[in-house]
Amino acid sequence: MNKKEIEEVFRRLNLLQDFHRQAPVLLWSEAAGERLASSSEALYVKDGILHVRVESPSAGSELRLRSERIIDRLNGLVGRETVRRIKIEIGGKNEPSD
To answer: Is the pTM of this model over 0.85?
Structure first.
């Protein structure tokens, strides 16, 4: 299913605004790149802040260095300014967040 098809399903369910707000989570791998995406996990977007968990401090440092470019890429993929900032937390992928 491509982005337009997913968007149409959300539109029919009257959840399109939620889709646009959370789309950066779905597009994380594409925006972050394969190497960074393999050591990180986009969790959710709240108030323009994308919360991302990284596996190690070094992955966190890389993400900090690349965050502006990734934010621009995510917003471009979504087609609107959805993410203003990335908040990084250190911990293994798929661990429960607080």
So the answer is: no
